Amino acid sequence: MSHIEKLKKIIDESDNIVFFGGAGVSTESGIPDFRSVDGLYNQKYDYPPEEILSHHFFVNNCKEFYRYYKDKMLALDVKPNTAHKALARLEQMGKLKAVVTQNIDGLHQEAGSKVVYELHGSVHRNYCTKCHKFFDAHYIKDSKDIPLCDNCGAVVKPDVVLYEESLEDNTVMGAVNAIRNADVLIVAGTSLTVYPAAGMIRYYTGDKLVLINRDETPMDSLANLIFHESVGELLGKVI
Ligand code: CNA
Asked: Among 33, 37, 42, 235, which is best to mutate for testing ligand 1, by the most ligand atoms less than 8 A from CB?
């Protein structure tokens, strides 16, 4: 049986699949990831992305943070791709129990997925750091330099987990529970190098861990079935 036939069989036979993904799930929508050759880490900025996207940088260099963030992280004209749509369909069919994502782009929900654990938050939620008023992503995009609250004048911050910040407890618990109870775990489009998120796949104890990633990852040896190819193209063929 070919690899792709094995994947089809695994999906056909399960009604408890969990998907764990990263930036590679959205590259086919036109959002660059961090670590591919054309990813954000291989472009030239005054500071490396981990530095700009850190809590201390947000506090101390807010204008520069927002210049980068609006330019590189706030992609509001993109659409879900085949991978997002295939996963939403699997959920509708009652086969997929949850999407756990490191992405902050909201594309899984836009494709129709309902149970989505956003480990690193979302660009679509933004709150005033003082009065906690909510703002959408367009408010941030349209602001000049630093977005300020129209109620109290304080700085507005994206509900995105920056480096040095901790993940939200309920999201982590939901994600860990889903992974721990999953019959099949499909891991895709992630370099599996950003912790604690990457460590979560170790909660899976089954024998159907499917890994789909263009490049090799440090956890390739954990996979029961592995594809080094495009996640959108592959899921489009299988689902
Ligand atoms: P990463 O470290 O950039 O790794 C992405 C991986 O995906 C690489 O190993 C690529 O080989 C692989 N890849 C790229 N395109 C495809 C594809 N079409 N099919 C299969 N594999 C592909 O990204 P991670 O998610 O592992 O790192 C975690 C960071 C990146 C999180 O904190 C995210 O918030 C952050 N990020 C998110 C977005 C987004 O929301 N779309 C974009 C860029 C970065």
From this structure: 33
